[in-house]
Structures are given as structure tokens and as C-alpha cells.
């Protein structure tokens, strides 16, 4: 924890990264001044200065510099992590820990420390600047080959070769800066990983690991499976099914007995109504008593209506009982009852037609009696 809590300035990291590029530039500057035997032109020195300036701007985004800023902000980070942990607590069993993904949280928290877009192009931009600087230096130092004298031409060629040699320092400088950047970037990333590992270790006791969550999930699944198996055993208990089947059989026998009795009563009423109707029709045919026939017809219709209502009540009771227990078993019985109802409807239509004929006969009889009385 002492490593995490140490605060210091980040200027030392900046100086370490920029030391070699600055020293190389000073070395080339000495050649331009003439202190050391290097033929460095002014435009080459200016190109090197520009490349160095770009490198110094990029240093603040290097991982070796960013790790210093991360460590300096640890106090605020620790408070934020603790608040986040308290907000994401989860109790599993007798333990209460946080489900915070600390590594992703750290990457998100430090996403504004440096610009990743600059980092992704830094290692390739310096060689490209060096090559560009080389071509610019060659183009600037290119002599005029329009002279005709041999001595002047030799001088122009010497100037060209000297300028080309000086221009190559730009490419060398660009490659050197790319190597330095890559080295400190990799070194800084290793420090960042170690820093994150220390933070995760310091909060390890307060966080659920992926392995612990997986074990807890498997235990919960096993408990659910055990409860499901127990529920299935209780649901499909053989004694319970046997008792249920016994109750259904008793209900079935009771329904069949009551249905037989009801059908017997219904058949008796139907037979009686049929006999009464036959007697009435016989009386009408014999013209014995038109009024008595009408009364008998009314009585027969009343009896038939009572029998029909009794049948309807029996059918409803029978249908309600069957729907609650054994609806499929009595499908055939329902079909037979439907046929009976159809036949009864035909019979009722026939009775209605016969009643109309009887009423017409009575009307004619009264008309005949009235005519006889009037003739007398």
C-alpha cells in the first residue's frame, strides 16, 4: 500500500523519456556549430528540431509517464472504488461482497489520463517524419546542374553528396525516437499492470471472484433441481394417484347409477305421453268427444313438456359431472344424447302437426253442429 500511496512529481518521468532524444539533438547541433566533425546544414537541424518538438508533445501520452499520474491520483481512486463497492454488494450464503468488475472500472477511470489515438500512431509517426525530413533536406540541398565547367560541376556534386549525408540524419533521428518511444511504452504498460494488480489485491477481500460466483451459481442450480425433484415426487406420489383414481371411480359409479335412474324415469314419462297421445288421436278419429280429445291433447302436451324438462335437467347434471372428471369417457354418450334430442325435436314437430290437424277437425265438427242446429 505504501507504493500506491506515494505521491511525487512526474517531471522525472518526462526527463527520463526525453533525455536521449535531447542529447542526440545537442550532439548534432555541435556538428552544425563545427565543434565536432559533422556536416550538418541549417535546414537539417531545423527538421530535427521539429521532430524533437513533436516527440516532446507525445511524451505526456506515453505509458511510462501516465503511470506517474495514476499513482498520484490513488487517494481519490480509493475513495471512489470503496463507494462503488458499497453500492454493488451482494450477499451469497453467509458472505457479503461486491460484484464490481474492478479491472474494467480501472480502465474506464483512467481512460482520460492519455489519448489512445496518439499512442496508436506514435511508434510509426516518428520514422515517417524522419523520412519526410530526409526528402525535404535533399530537395533543399539539391544543386543546380546547369553549369558547364567541370570544376563547377564537381563542386555541385560535392554539395549534393554533403546534403544527402546531412539529410539522412533526419531518418536516423526518426527511427531512434520510434525505438525510444516503444521501449518506454512497453515499460510503462508493465508498470500499469503491476499497479492494477496491487489495487486488485488490496480490494480482493471485498470482491467476488469469477470462480466464487460460478460455484455459488452451481450450488443454487443444484438446490433448485433438488426442490424440483422433491416437488415432482410429491406430485406423482403413487398413493395419491391411487386415492385419486378410487375417488374418480366412485364418482363414476354414482353418476352412472343416477343417470340410469333418470333415464328410466324419462322413458316412463315418454311412454305414458305416447300412450295418452294415441288415445286422444283414437278419440278424434272416432269423433266421440271433441272437447275431451282437446283436453287429453293438452294433458299429453303438458306431460311431454314435463318429461322434456326432466330430460334437460338430467342432461345438464350429467354434463356438469362429466366435464369435471371424465369428459373423454362419455363422448359416445353425448353423441347418443344428441341423437335422442334430435328425435325428440322431430317428435315434437310431429305432435305440433297432429295438434293442428286435431284443432282443424274440432273446428269442422263445431261448424257441422252449428249447421245442423241452424237447419232445424
* Topology pattern, helix = H, strand = E: HHHHHEEHHHHHHH
Radius of gyration: 56 Å
* N/C terminus separation: 141 Å
Main pleated sheet: 2 strands, antiparallel
Strand residues, percent: under 5%
How many helical stretches?
Answer: 12
* Lateral strand order in the biggest sheet: 1-2
Count of β-strands: 2
Backbone shape: elongated
| Total domain count | 2
- pLDDT below 50 for ≥5 consecutive residues: which ranges? none
What's the SSE blueprint?
Layout: H1 2-5, H2 11-33, H3 42-58, H4 63-72, H5 74-87, E1 89-92, E2 95-98, H6 102-109, H7 116-141, H8 150-202, H9 210-235, H10 238-286, H11 290-324, H12 331-375
Antiparallel strand pairs: 1-2
Helix pairs in contact: 2-3, 2-8, 3-7, 3-8, 4-8, 7-8, 10-11, 11-12
How would you describe this protein?
The chain is an all-alpha fold. The protein has 2 domains: 2-209; 240-375. The chain is built from 12 helices and 2 strands, in the order αααααββααααααα. A two-stranded antiparallel ribbon has the order 1-2. β1 and β2 (95-98) form a beta hairpin. It is elongated and about 170 Å long.
Summarize it.
By secondary structure, this protein is mainly α. Helix content is 82%, strand content 2%.
Keywords:
mainly alpha, 2 domains, single chain, elongated, 12 helices
Amino acid at each position: 500500500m505504501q507504493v500506491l500511496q506515494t505521491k511525487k512529481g512526474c517531471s522525472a518521468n518526462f526527463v527520463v523519456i526525453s533525455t536521449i532524444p535531447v542529447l542526440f539533438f545537442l550532439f548534432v547541433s555541435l556538428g552544425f556549430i563545427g565543434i565536432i566533425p559533422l556536416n550538418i546544414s541549417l535546414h537539417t537541424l531545423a527538421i530535427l528540431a521539429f521532430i524533437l518538438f513533436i516527440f516532446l508533445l507525445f511524451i505526456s501520452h506515453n505509458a511510462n509517464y501516465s503511470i506517474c499520474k495514476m499513482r498520484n491520483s490513488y487517494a481519490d481512486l480509493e475513495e471512489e472504488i470503496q463507494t462503488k463497492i458499497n453500492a454493488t454488494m451482494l450477499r451469497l450464503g453467509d458472505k457479503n461482497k461486491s460484484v464490481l468488475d474492478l479491472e474494467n472500472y480501472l480502465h474506464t477511470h483512467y481512460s482520460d489520463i492519455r489519448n489512445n489515438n496518439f499512442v496508436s500512431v506514435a511508434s510509426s509517426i516518428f520514422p515517417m517524419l524522419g523520412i519526410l525530413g530526409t526528402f525535404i533536406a535533399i530537395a533543399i540541398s539539391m544543386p543546380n546542374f546547369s553549369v558547364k565547367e567541370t570544376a563547377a560541376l564537381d563542386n555541385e556534386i560535392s554539395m549534393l553528396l554533403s546534403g544527402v549525408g546531412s539529410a539522412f540524419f533526419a531518418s536516423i533521428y526518426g527511427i531512434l525516437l520510434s525505438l525510444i518511444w516503444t521501449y518506454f511504452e512497453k515499460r510503462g504498460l508493465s508498470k500499469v499492470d503491476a499497479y492494477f494488480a496491487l489495487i486488485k489485491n488490496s480490494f480482493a477481500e471485498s470482491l467476488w471472484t469469477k470462480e466464487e460466483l460460478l460455484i455459488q451459481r452451481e450450488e443454487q442450480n443444484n438446490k433448485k433441481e433438488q426442490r424440483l425433484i422433491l416437488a415432482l415426487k410429491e406430485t406423482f406420489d403413487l398413493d395419491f394417484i391411487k386415492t385419486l383414481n378410487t375417488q374418480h371411480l366412485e364418482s363414476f359409479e354414482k353418476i352412472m347409477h343416477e343417470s340410469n335412474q333418470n333415464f328410466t324415469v324419462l322413458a316412463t314419462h315418454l311412454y305414458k305421453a305416447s300412450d295418452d297421445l294415441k288415445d286422444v288421436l283414437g278419440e278424434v278419429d272416432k269423433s266421440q268427444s271433441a272437447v275431451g280429445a282437446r283436453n287429453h291433447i293438452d294433458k299429453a302436451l303438458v306431460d311431454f313438456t314435463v318429461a322434456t324438462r326432466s330430460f334437460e335437467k338430467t342432461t345438464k347434471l350429467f354434463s356438469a359431472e362429466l366435464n369435471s372428471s371424465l369428459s373423454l369417457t362419455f363422448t359416445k354418450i353425448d353423441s347418443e344424447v344428441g341423437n335422442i334430442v334430435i328425435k325428440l325435436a322431430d317428435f315434437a314437430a310431429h305432435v305440433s302437426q297432429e295438434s293442428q290437424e286435431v284443432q282443424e277437425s274440432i273446428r269442422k265438427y263445431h261448424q257441422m253442429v252449428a249447421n245442423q242446429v241452424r237447419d232445424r
